[in-house]
Design goal:
single chain, 0% strand
């Protein structure tokens, strides 16, 4: 697609932000309607009780993988120029960061993207947790926690193993990656059939997943056609949340880019979807102990996500869709630590109560 008409009339930075806004609105609306949530999916899987959330996550995940690989096949997405593949990544950061993020999302009852979606529907717990997440992410990116993050990240990198492209490491063809993604899609349909999910919820799950290749396509097209250098990227929330926070606290300057439009877009899309379906509900904390647990979880996600180079969406789906090795390591760590944390909380009588309180829009 030729974006010359738009590039001639809209400054590149503003067009990037507008593209991020549109992608964000799509992701936010579909994520809100499908109840897309990695935390809930991971807990259903670890407890052996697949129900509502696992098929939603599987369909979103596999849709992103399939569409991204198809776009790469036709040369519409230059995955080799993405940060995850074009520059050295941290294997130690992906391992430790994934474990921290998974624990944090169970404590906070939602990953970074889910907190943003919930906050737009009136969940004040998610709003405060999301703000803490953004503050800690910013501190880890450029602030007081940066030296700690850099030390952990430097322990083991992809330079030591010859790169971060999993397809190159394993010698996988695009046909194999498409077949692999299709298996996950089929699994999602099977679980959805068993759970008797509505057609609209399944469509919305796929819509949330397709926002990722849409972001890859848009930024790849901008990178080819814009005069100034443009970073090829997908959807992630750790870095963009930190950048959006700084945009609020300081003049825009050079901060306008795809990421800056993404976070407000997700909030707007989620809000509009909840408004149209009459699902806007104010919710708060149940007490001091639960508040401490939420904020601890948000802090772990902020540091863990920045250390891993992505959140549950940024690494778990966006990075995985281009088969970045560190993304798969992060995703595995998130699932593992979520299951372990849930078991520990269950032993203290916390987890089952928490999950019971998350029926409907709160999870």
């Amino acid at each position: 697609m030729d974006l010359t008409y738009l590039l001639d009339r809209i400054p590149e930075a503003w067009l990037l932000a507008l593209g991020g806004l549109i992608v964000g609105v799509a992701f936010g609306a579909f994520a809100q309607q499908s109840r897309f949530c990695l935390r809930a999916a991971a807990l259903e899987f670890s407890r052996g009780t697949p129900s509502d959330r696992l098929p939603v996550w599987l369909l979103a995940f596999s849709s992103a993988l399939i569409a991204t690989q198809v776009l790469m096949h036709f040369g519409e997405v230059q995955a080799s120029e993405a940060r995850q593949l074009a520059s050295p990544q941290s294997l130690s950061g992906a391992s430790l960061g994934g474990l921290m993020f998974g624990t944090g999302m169970v404590l906070a009852r939602g990953c970074a993207s889910r907190l943003l979606v919930l906050s737009a529907t009136g969940n004040l717990r998610a709003l405060l947790s999301g703000l803490v997440f953004a503050v800690v992410a910013q501190a880890s990116l450029r602030g007081i926690l940066k030296p700690v993050r850099e030390w952990f990240a430097g322990l083991w990198t992809t330079v030591d193993i010859g790169g971060n492209d999993l397809t190159a490491q394993l010698g996988l063809t695009q046909g194999v990656t498409l077949a692999f993604a299709s298996l996950w899609f089929f699994a999602g349909l099977v679980f959805a059939w068993k759970a008797r999910k509505s057609t609209w919820q399944l469509v919305a799950a796929c819509g949330a997943g397709l926002a990722i290749p849409l972001a890859w396509w848009f930024t790849s097209t901008m990178a080819r056609q814009a005069f100034d250098p443009v970073q090829v990227e997908g959807v992630t929330f750790t870095g963009p949340s930190a950048d959006t926070l700084m945009l609020v606290l300081s003049p825009p300057g050079d901060l306008l880019d795809f990421d800056i439009g993404l976070v407000p877009g997700v909030f707007l899309g989620s809000f509009l979807a909840a408004l149209l379906t009459r699902e806007l509900v104010l919710q708060g904390f149940e007490g001091g102990k639960s508040m401490a647990r939420y904020l601890t979880g948000a802090s772990l996600m902020g540091f863990g996500g920045m250390l891993a180079g992505g959140c549950a969406v940024g690494a778990g789906i966006t990075g995985a869709s281009i088969f970045a090795l560190t993304a798969w390591i992060t995703l595995s760590g998130i699932w593992l630590s979520a299951a372990v944390t849930d078991r520990l909380m269950e032993g203290r009588g916390i987890s089952r109560f928490a999950l019971a309180g998350e029926v409907g829009n709160s999870s």
